[in-house]
Structure formats: C-alpha cells, structure tokens
Amino acid sequence: MKYVYFFGNGTADGSADMKELLGGKGANIAEMTNLGIPVPPGFTITTDVCTHFYEHHKEYPSELERQVTDALKQTESAMGRRFGDPADPLLVSVRSGAAVSMPGMMETVLNVGLTSKTIPGLIEKSGSARFVWDAYRRLIMMYSDVVMEKAGGVEPKDGVGIRERLEELIENRKEEREVEQDLDLNGDDWKELAQVFKVTVKDVLGQDFPDDHHEQLWGATGAVFQSWNGRRAISYRRIEGLADEMGTAVNVQAMVFGNMGDSCATGVGFTRNPATGDNHFYGEWLADAQGEDVVAGIRTPNPLNEWGRGDQNAHLPTLNEAMPEIYTQLDGIRINLETHYRDMQDIEFTIEKDRLWMLQTRVGKRNGAASIKIAVDMHQEELITAEEAVMRVQPSQLDELLHPMVDPDAEVSADELAHGLPAGPGGATGQIVFTADDAEAWAKDGKKVILVRKETSPEDVHGMHAAKAILTAKGGITSHAALVARGWGKCCIVGCGTLYIDRHQKTVQVNGQVLREGDWITLNGTKGIVYAGELSLTPADPLRNESFKKLMTIADGVRTMGVRTNADRPEDAEQARTFGAEGIGLCRTEHMFFEPERITAMREMIVAETEESRRKAVMKLLPFQRQDFYGILKAMHDLPVTIRLLDPPLHEFVTLTSEQTVELAQKLELDLDKLKSRIESLHELNPMLGHRGCRLGIAYPEITEMQARAIFEAAAQLSEESVKVLPEVMIPLVGTAAEFEHQEAIVRRVAEEVKSETGVDFPYLVGTMIEIPRACLTANEIAPKAEFFSFGTNDLTQTTYGFSRDDIGGFLPSYLEEEILPHDPFQSLDQSGVGQLVQMGVEKGRSVKADLKIGICGEHGGDPDSIDFCYRVGLDYVSCSPFRVPIARLAAAQAVITNE
Amino acid sequence: MKYVYFFGNGTADGSADMKELLGGKGANIAEMTNLGIPVPPGFTITTDVCTHFYEHHKEYPSELERQVTDALKQTESAMGRRFGDPADPLLVSVRSGAAVSMPGMMETVLNVGLTSKTIPGLIEKSGSARFVWDAYRRLIMMYSDVVMEKAGGVEPKDGVGIRERLEELIENRKEEREVEQDLDLNGDDWKELAQVFKVTVKDVLGQDFPDDHHEQLWGATGAVFQSWNGRRAISYRRIEGLADEMGTAVNVQAMVFGNMGDSCATGVGFTRNPATGDNHFYGEWLADAQGEDVVAGIRTPNPLNEWGRGDQNAHLPTLNEAMPEIYTQLDGIRINLETHYRDMQDIEFTIEKDRLWMLQTRVGKRNGAASIKIAVDMHQEELITAEEAVMRVQPSQLDELLHPMVDPDAEVSADELAHGLPAGPGGATGQIVFTADDAEAWAKDGKKVILVRKETSPEDVHGMHAAKAILTAKGGITSHAALVARGWGKCCIVGCGTLYIDRHQKTVQVNGQVLREGDWITLNGTKGIVYAGELSLTPADPLRNESFKKLMTIADGVRTMGVRTNADRPEDAEQARTFGAEGIGLCRTEHMFFEPERITAMREMIVAETEESRRKAVMKLLPFQRQDFYGILKAMHDLPVTIRLLDPPLHEFVTLTSEQTVELAQKLELDLDKLKSRIESLHELNPMLGHRGCRLGIAYPEITEMQARAIFEAAAQLSEESVKVLPEVMIPLVGTAAEFEHQEAIVRRVAEEVKSETGVDFPYLVGTMIEIPRACLTANEIAPKAEFFSFGTNDLTQTTYGFSRDDIGGFLPSYLEEEILPHDPFQSLDQSGVGQLVQMGVEKGRSVKADLKIGICGEHGGDPDSIDFCYRVGLDYVSCSPFRVPIARLAAAQAVITNE
Fold first, then answer.
1. Closest to A810 (Cβ–Cβ): which among B690, B820, B821?
2. Which of A677, A736, A810 is opposite residue B821, by nearest beta carbon?
3. What is the phi/psi pair of residue B499, to 5°?
4. Which of A108, A506, A541, B110 is the most exposed place for a label (fewest CB within 10 A)?
5. Phi-psi region of B876 (alpha: psi -120 to 50; beta: other; left: phi over 0)
6. Which chain B residues are Cβ-neighbours of A689 within 8 angstroms?
7. Predicted model pTM
8. What is the pLDDT of residues A219-244, one digit of tens each?
9. CB-based contacts of A881, cutoff 8 Å, min separation 6
C-alpha cells in the first residue's frame, strides 16, 4: 500500500484530484509540480496513515518507515542536499493538511534537521551565523511546544507553557540589550538564547531537546497527526460539521529561505486584483525576508509591479524592477496557474539565492465587485462556462454593490457600541434623532440622521424615509422597521437589546456610554454593528457596473423561476424594475392609509357604528386608493402586480394620544367616551393572531369592496389608455376555504360591476396568501377557487414556530448562540419545519389544480438558501424587496445548477 | 311497482325498517299495526311517488290511482265506513312523513271527505251538529290555505293569506257574539261561518272550495308532495344537511275523533317518566277533546294514573279511574311498544266512543337524569346491551348532573340581557362585583357574587375562586377566565361583547340597561346567556346518583382510552379522582406563584441582573414548590401526574401599578428606573408567541432546575413515606428537538442529583407538550428522547389557525353566524386542519418510537367529538377539567362503539 507520495523534479506521484488522500495542500503542491512549476521537493504522508495511527494505538503501518526513507532520498536528490549532511544539510518543514482547510487548527514544525552536527555546515553554506542560530532557536521553540509538550501530553507547569517561557527569555535578553525588536538581536544573542532554551526545555519538560535529525522528523510527523485530535481541531470540526474520520495528511518539504541575503526574497500575490477584479498580477514582496514578515506588517512591503503602486508605496522598488527575470518567470507561472485552475489564485513564493520557489497556490478570496468582474471576465475569456460564472459569485456579495458600505479600513479601529440583528444591509452614518418628526425636520435642514427607536410603527414611516438608517432596540428581522427599511434598500439594525432609550430625555444608554440627540453614529447593517462617530462610506452604483449587468444577464439565461419584487409605491416599483423585477409579488395596501387626509377617513370608518356610515367613510378612501393603484399598475405596465387587500389589525390606525382622541371626536362629531370605548375595544392581547387579514374583510365587506373597486377602476382607466395591466388580487390570512370564497365572491362581483359600468374589459386574477399552517394543511380545499397561491412565509414562520417576529429579540440571540436554532428562521426559511408546510401547500394545491401558479412573497424570497428551497419545491416565482432582486436572480440561477 | 302500502286490521304491508320508502311516521304506524296495536287504518303513498312527481312535471305514476283506490277500499272495509258515504262517511287525514323527521316543515290536511253530501250523515251518526260544522270549517281553512293557495301557487292578495282572512272572520263573529273563546261559538255559528268561508274562498282565490271527496283527497295528496319543495322545507334541509332526493311519503289515514262526547278522549304519554327516568307510565289526557287541546294548555289535562298526580292536578280524575279497561289496554300497549322498540316511547292516543286508537309512537325525548336512568335500567332489565346503554346517553347530558343548572321554568320568562360564549357549564346567580378583591371581600361576608370583568389575569384568581361565576366581555372558550373556571366546575361566560364595563364607575352597560355593583344577575353557562335578576337554580349531586355511577362503570368496561384530569391543586385532584380520573394529564405550575410570599421571590428572580442573584431568588421558591408537588403527588398516589414546567411569559408576573413598582423597588433595594426599564423590556406585542414555555427555561435554566428539584424532592419524600408516585415532567412549547434536549438534560441531571442526595429511588418520565405546528412536523426528531407526548391543542389551535384565544371574540361570533366556521375550534377540535397536525405528530412520533405514550391535555380532551377523534388517531388517554371527566369516560366508550 502506498502511504507516501513524492513530489519534485517536475513530477509528482499525486495530483489535484487526490485531496481526500493527500489533503488540500499536498494535492495542490503535487499539481503544481506536475505543471512544471518550481516547488521545493518533498513528500506527503497520506490521510490513510492518520486513520491507521488512530486505529492502532498511535502506531504507523509497518511499510511507512521504508517509504519515508525512499521519498526522503528522492527529495535529497532533487535538492542536491542531504538530510543530516554536516556539510550542506537539507532542512525540511513538517506541515498538516486535511482535505478541507482548517486554518490554524493544527500544528507545523519548520527547520527540522538542524542539529549540533549540521549547524556549522549551514553557517558555512549560508554565510550567516545569525540566520542559522535564529532558525535553530525557532526550531527549538516550535518543537518543544508542539512535539514535546502538546503531543507528549505534558501538563504545563504552573499553567505556563514552554513556548511562553522561552518567549520570556527573549524578552529578558532584549531588555538586557536595551533593544525593542527581535531584529536588533544579533547572531550571538540567538546562539546564546538557543543554549539557554535547551537547558530550559530539559528542566521544564524533563527531556533533552533531540539532537538527531531523524528523531526530529518522526517527532514532528507524530505531533502533526496528534494535532488532528487536539482540542482546537475537534471543536472546529464540530462547528463546521466536518467528519472526524477524514484525517490529516502530513507534508514534509525541503525548506527554502528568502532571508539568506540580497539575492533572496519572499512574496505573496493574487493572479487578479482581489479588490477590483482587474486582470492584472497583484501582490507584494520583500527582499531578504521570511514569508511571515510580509504579512506581519513590520516592514512596508514592496509592490510586485506597476499595478500595485499607490501613494503609500510609490517610492518602493517593484519586483519587476529589482529582479526582472524572476518577475517574468513568476508572471508566467501566474498565467499557467490561472489557466490550469480556471480561477483566480492566491500564491506564495520565495526566492532563495536567485532561484524562484512556489510554496502555495489556492483559490483567492475576493470582495463582491471583484468576484463579479472575475466571473464575467473569465466567462468572456472562455475560461469558464456560464454556469460556472453564475456559481462563482456568492449572492450575498452582490450586496456590496447594491448598498453603500462602511469603509472596512475605517471599521478596524472604530469604537463598537453594540450588536443587533442585521435587518437592512449596507452602511450609513448620521446624527441620532429619536422621533420620526425630528428625523423629517432635521433631514429638511440637510442633515444626515439616524432614527433610533425602541420599535417603529406605520406612523413613523415619514421619519424612516427621511433617515439614512434606522436603529431599534426591539424586533426581529421581519419587524416593521426591518420590512420597511429593506423595501427602500435602507440600512437598518433591529433587536439591539443593549440600547436603553429614553425618548423623553432624548438619550440612549449603550455599552456604558450615554449618547444624545445629534451625536454621530455609524451602522454596518450587513453585520449588525453600531459604531460611535462618523465613519467613511463607500458608495453604491450597481447599474453603472458593466460586469454586474453582464452577470445578471448570464444568470437570467440560466434561471427558470421568476423574480418579482415587494413594493408599495410607484417609485419603489420603478427602482425594482431597473434591478430586473418581473412583476410585483406583494403590494401592501395598508401603508397607503397613513397620509393625513386618508387616515381621518380610515378612522371614521373604524369607529362607524352602522354599516351605512362605515360604507360612507370607506368610500371616501376610494379616490385615494384608485390613484395609488393607478400609479403602481402603470409603473409595472405589462407585468403582473399582486395586490394584497388590507391586512393589519384596525387598532394600528387608531393609536392616538388623548389630545388626538379629543380632536378626532370633534372632527367626527362623536361622543368622546364612545370613541374611547370603541378604540379600547379594538385593543388586542395578541394582535398578530387577532382580527386582521381577511377576517377584517369578512366583518366589514365594504372594505374589500372599496379596495377591489379601486383596483379595477384603475385597471379599467389604464386599459383605456392602452396600458397593459395584470392586477392579481390577493386575499390575506386565509385559513379555510370558506374565508377565501367569501372574499373572492365580493372581488369578482365588483370586477363585473366595474367592467359593465366602464364598458372596459381587463384581465385579473384572484388568489390568496398562504401564511398560516391551516392554509397549507387544507390547500386542496382552497385551491379549486384560487387562481394563485403566494406563500407569506413571515407569518407562516411565526405561527409554525409560535414565534412573534416583534418579540423574538428576547430570546433569539441566545438561541443562536446556544445553537438551538441553526439560524434566524425569519432570515432563512426553516426548511425542515416551515418548509414541510410549504411543500404540503404546493402538493395539495397542485393535486387539485395542476397548473396553479405559486410564488413566495415573504422576506425569504430574497434569501439564497430559501430560494434554492423554493426552486426544489417547484414554485413559479420568488418575490423580494427591490434591493434584493439581483440577489434573487443570481440565487435562482444557482438553484438550477445546484439541483441539476 | 308497489306505490301504496296499506295498514289496518292487524296487518300492514310495511314495517319499521322501511323508513326510507314509507317515511318515519308511515313505517312506525305499519309497525304498530303489525304488533296488533289498534291504529286507525289507512295507507302510505311512498317516497318513490314523490321522486316520480318531481321527475315528471308533477305527474303521478299511472298505476297510482288504481293502488290508492284499492287501499282506500281496504281502509273502508277495516273501518266499516265508506269514503263519501252520505249515511256514514269515512273521513281521512292526509299527512306528510319523510324518512327523517322535519317537524312543522310540511303540510297536513284533516277531515278530508266532508262535503255537502256527507255532512248530514255525519251529524246523524255523531249526534253533534256543532262537532261536524266545526270539523268542516277546519277543513275549509286548511284546504284553502294548503291546497288552493300555497300548492296552487296563488300570490296572497295584498300580502294577506287566505287563512288569515278566514281567521279574521272568526274573530268578527266572536266580537258580534261578545264571546272570547272559539269554544263559546255554537253549531249555528260554525255552520254560518262555513258558508261565509266558502264565499270568501271563491272570491279571493277565484275557485270554488271542492265539494267532491275524491277531489279533496287528491288535492290534499298533491299539496303534501308540493310542500316537500316549499321554502321552509328547503331551508330546513339546507340547515340540517338533508338530501333533497329523500322525498316525503303521504299518509292517508282514517280520522278518529276524541271530541264526540263523554265516551271520547285523547291523550299523550311516555312509557317512562322523561324527567326522572322512573319506570312508570307517565302522561296526560282529556275527555271529549282533540289532541291539540292537551298540548295547547287551555284546559288543565288530567293525569293518566297515580304516578302523574301532583299538587296541581290532585283533584283531577286519572284515566285509570275514568276508563279502567281502556287504561289497562293502553298500559299493555305501552309495555308492548317498549319491549318492541327497546327504548322509551312518546305516544299519542285517541278514544272514540270507548274505542282506543293509537295515533303515534316515537322515541321519547328526555332530560339528562332520565336518559341515564333509563339506559342503566333497561340494561339491567336486559332490554339493551352495555354498548347500547352507553350510546343512549349524550355526553353533554351528563352536564346536567355535574353542575347546578338554572331552573328551565324560570328561564322561560326571564329578562335576557346578553349572549356570550358558554365557557363554563351550569348555572349561577349572584350580585355583580367588578374586582377580584371585592369578590373575595363580599364572599367573606356571605354574599353570592358574580365577577364581571373585561378579561381576567392570573392575579384575579382569588376573586374568581370566591365568585359563584365569572362573566367577561372579551376572550374565547380557552381564555384565562374560561380555563380557570372550568377547572373548578364553575359557571362562566366569556366574550360577551355587548357588555360595556366601566371599572371605575363600577357599572356595566348592556342591552340599553345600566347595571351597578350589587345588582343581581343569573348566568346560564351551558348556553351562554346572561339574565337580569336572581333566578332559581337546581342543584347538582352526581355521586349520590346510583344510575350515574352504574353508567360510568358500564362505560369504563367498554372504553380503551385512559381519562385523566387537568388539575393544579390537591383539592381539584381529589375532586377529579372521585369523578374517575386516572391521573393528572396537566398540572400547571404557574398558578402556584401568585401567592403574596411567592410572588415577591418570583419578581426578584425576574428582575435579577446576574445568574447568581437570579438563582438565589429562584431557590427561595423551592420550598413552596416542593410543598405544592408533595400535595398533588400525594393526592394522586398510585397514578401518574404530568407536571408542566413554567409556561407563561414573565411579564405576567410583573403587571404592577406605579405604587406597587415603587414598593417592589424598595423591597428588593433596586434602582426604580432600572426596575421600570426591566419591566418595560419584558413587555411583548404578542406574548402568546413570545418569550415563554421552554424558551424561559432555556434563557434561565435555574428555573427549570428549581422546578425539577421541587418535583423530585417531593417524589423522594413521598417514596420514603411509602406513597407510590409517578411524576411525569413535561417541557412546554417545544418546537425543535434541540429545545427539548436542552431542558431534558437539566431535568435528568437534577433527578440523578436528588436520587443520590436522598438515597431514594423513584420513577419518573420526561416528555413534552406538542402544541405548536413545528413540533408536529418534526415529531420524529423530538420523539427519540421524549418518553411521552401530550398534545396541547389549545395553543396548537391558536397557531394552526393564527387565532388568539384572547382576541377571537372580535370575529368568532360572526364567523359562526356566517358559517365560515362550523363550530368554535377551541371548543371542538378542528379535525381537518389541526387534526392533521395531531395525526402527523402521532404517526411521526411513533415511527421512531412505536410505544410512545401519547395523550391530549388541551380543552378538547373533554369534548365528545374531539375524544372520538383522539380515539381514531390512537391516543393513549385524554385529559380534561375535573368536571368533564365523566363526560370523557362516556365519550371514550362511545368512541369504541362508533368506530367498531
């Protein structure tokens, strides 16, 4: 059985598709070797050995030693140096490498092979005693920590580990020498420290530091295997859901050094710019340095080439200038790797005495803009297919283009005040105000404001619109504030429980600070973080981004589900259209009632005592509603518009102060006590489960009648103006077929009336929102009369879990923390619970009407995982807030590919 | 084809099992005839003729006329009189009779055969001209109304029907003669009126009143068939869900008269006493009278026998005394009928010139007590089987024995104030109070009070306990008031929306009246009616009722499901035990926290800021809880007790006035603002969907820990005292397996701790309440660790429908009225919606644990229809309030029989 895979001299036993056996690192090194790319030679001990190791009381397979010896010989021959050779010793690194990257979770030992026998020869060869003693003391530090203490199972003495003790010795030496940096210690310092280290190791761990190169190699190998079952690695696997059986490989590779003088260097690079996606080689390098020096930031690294030059490093030499031949070689490798891997790569290299060695290649991380550009460019370059381009961009990465973002650099050092639920993505900065009226007034004066509230209600909408962002102490991801903000693409954080807001004093206590009206704060709505002060933002302008538009076109070519938007106003509808919405999936009508002239008629309707006076009041609203529907149907001409009839409990329209109540009584010429008692009687203990939705339309059919009339009169008028309209009337909160049929009959009657009154014919549909469990359970009873279903998964999630979206803030954070819930079910659809009901609704609905049109208009319609689910259960379309339409288009395309 | 079935002379063509063909009346008359019981002869025209009539433009089958002629001949021969014979004419009645009784919905014509030719002969034979003219004018009134106007399709002239016009003529005549009663008009009056009637009929309807006996017969027959599709009959069938295709039969039967002199009489009877169930012949009779005279109540009827004698009729002659031979014959028939029909019968008879004729027999209606006694007695008499005895009693009839009831006689003339939802059965009368404290104080003074509230909360419990009944303006059948009241068997009406309560003024406006504190009202909680004033009540004492106890024993022998009770206190548990409860299915623990010394510790716990201080406060509650559980486990020794851990949202414990808040701040030495802000932060918009149930125990594990410890310490103590305990710890409101496992782990850990601390072993189970849809949908994930499921169908109904039980009053009444819901889903389980989830929960749960113990502890556990459902889906037991335990025992037995 083959346990050891050699690589070097242009060929490797392994390849990139052997990740399970060789781990990700080992497989990629083998692949690079096979591509003819110069990689320090070495070998990979397979994950099978790891499995054997744990199955046999930490013993190796008997063939291993011979295979290692053979591979070591091949390595020696490839490097032209021998392991343990006093004259010109080969040193090796010993690194872990599992099939799935587990960054920093397992151990590494470098400089293996340095012993009292090989040190003199290496000093001779390298010409630098300081370099060698420094390398030696690093070996002792790593080895004593990783191999002798951790893998040896030695309990740290007095709780202080060996590594910490050795680091303290370095600090002492620096104090003695009155220097600050390790760099300021010279060769003698390191030599002396190495001696002291060895004594300390013996003293603390009771064992000599091994002076034999083979003992070091096997010690380090065993320690890497042991680290697979270290505490950190195990808990990482638990969190990520990785299998314990996977095991790690061990990579033994010849050491190369970028810090042996001026002909040496080290660097990192990306095959394309990871911030912009531009197709230019991008990276940094340092002469006479080790890899970690580039990353550590002690020295400012040099740019690789002109593309990497900016204000800060304009004076520094490029690699292209300093080592033109090596740069050309490196650039060739870059192209080779990208062509081969068909994706942007993140690479590490070292130049040892004018010789280039590649140490690593892996898929490079990139931001949203770059991700899109690279995917689209590579598709145009015919490097990848349309399907691959679609899969290369995370839907969430589109957010970066769709919303202004807090500048990530500014965030690093910002003063974090609080965490909340990320309800509206993007960033915003502004001055705190505490009321909607203040928000509006301050905004009129040209100020940027952030509205800070315990929670918001429909009456705050004008202030929310004026504010740059909304921050609330209560509520969940589908609370009022969140819904409204997302509809406008506005930054919003909700459920920020550590805010203590005093509305009267106009102060907010948070994290031990007191903020006042007018103080600046900045919100990162994508992550849910509140910062003190004014941070800089990066603007959004997706429609000028050609790559974005191309990606959308590619995605549209792949996807099969429609994408609609949830929009209540013509402006929002138009915005969504520019983002590619193919109709409105949810037009809520209640927001239309809060304007001053309308709300009075609405209130008159609510407090009316007879059907006649109620009808009179309702009909006052007709012209307004007709105008609303005229606007939105016109903006969405040629596309379907699903209009939901009045949904919220009536008391939402009569939350009045006592003064306002008196005023209303006067205006409506009503007895004050009667008015109060009527308002009082509308109060509900659990309004979410109360008298709302179609229950209103059943109690007050004249509301349904007025709304239907407004819709159809607008439709008739537009039809006469030759605008094509497709209104779809949606009955909300239906739980029984009888409810639907009651309301449907009214809507159809009014449609016929309007048609015969106007003499205009227009198409329309009547369907229902499926948003309570009973509707799913009895969908086969509802479907015969309904022309469409639209899943309202916000309410469905509330009732399926018994979670109020307004109150979930009280326990959701701890539920997520304790992993009782894998994620916020209002953000991403709970497929195993709520999803079962959705599936049942689809199957039962289509069991009686095979071609029933079914969509989703809950907030989940904009969540990629939920969109994938919607595709799998066979929905015809998803609908989401305007600013999530592009995300939904991409996710819908990905769903097709993922489920192929 | 045979269309006409003769009966008479001791044999009949038909029998009791031919109800579909002959209708109920025709089949029973045939049966009686076959039993040798004297029944006036006649014939039944089958329902097939009705079907033919409507399928062939109201024409009869061609064979019909001949068959009628033949049957008429047989009838003539049996009576010894001929139809249309001028000398001794046979008169007949023509009556409808469908398979299912539709009382008063169709037409009847009596005295058919009276014409100018037959009148003189009948006067001669009867010896009474007045009798004959009276009979004739009755024929004209019925015939002109039923046959000529209604069946003839004549629109009433000026909206005034012919019958009304003729009645007016009688009134005029009485005025002229200055008399008040019809009885005071003599033979000449009736003769003259008959002439005037005929002129009027001709004048108004444009047709002569037919003077031919055959024309009368066929006219009446056709009119009865027509009345099957009369407006009243159709709408009755719609309401009762009867098929239009069923059709009616027509019964033509020789007239016999009880009003032809002193040798004539008429009467009604029951084969056993319908009020007590005593096995005595019970009934009333009148000499020289018609059947309607007995019912009309103008003359006080005589008792049939000594058993019927009371204070009011002690002086009146019994039939036994007046006509001993006929009484003996009648009593024989009574025994014959009961033996034959094997149920108590309601009979009608007429004595015409010393000859007894039976006119009707049918199953007699009876009250609850009688129903039970008759069933049990008949079973003991070996007349019926145990299964039949069980099926003979409606579970709801038991209510009459279990609760005091408003005296039905007093209700007839009482002043009805309002209708509400019948939340707690039984009757109560008392003086109005508006606060729980007043209720307690007044009750201490020995007053009977009724607590009138908008709604109740746990803090009102002491006042609710002190009151005779509770009346609320809001809430549904499972609201707080309803639940608590039912638990105590207390009368309660909720959701009485027409009450306007002014708590400060201590008045309630209802139905235009203003009632004040101290005013008397009476509640019928079985029907949901509120009366003004103090009505008399009939007391309840079921356990002294031997028949009741025997019926329960019979039912227990049949049923297979267990019956437990929902009880929170030892007294209630003991009460339920006497009613036959086999354990506690739901012991709520939250009611235990409202006593003064406990509530402070509870509040301290709630406002605690650190886990440590919270734990300290919680542990103060431990001794109280331990004592509670000790009491209830002891009361239920040898039987299982399911204890639900804390369920309600915390804010329920801190609804404080500002004074109380200040006081609490002082008591707990807390900053007032901080306390206020903590209380404020607990407020929820939809508490029913908020931070409650196991969500509390997860946020504050120390609550679960304390409760588990209290249960197990009590169990250990009782075990040491050799009391057998079976605690079952129930985790509430579980929606995910992770929630259950989190809480289960705590409970099991504490159990082990207590066992090892005390050295006592005791059995216990840990299970969960399945009460939100997601728990049903993922029951297979929850079941592996749960030892039992108990369906909480109150909450499950709330979330499945999206109905808040506290707010449903706003629309439920109109939903029931408009038949959008067939019944209140909180009262009787919604089998097609909620039931699907229950079934899913059972199937999914048992799919992973075949022997999973499953019960129901929602209010539906006491509803017979729901109990039938529970049996069908395979539940192990139902649990209900103590006063419904007998009902559940009976219903569970009926479920076995019904589903055989």
1. B690
2. A736
3. -85, 130
4. A541
5. alpha
6. 686, 688-689, 798-799, 802-804, 807
7. 0.83
8. 999 999 999 998 888 888 877 778 88
9. A486, A487, A489, A565, A566, A567, A859, A862
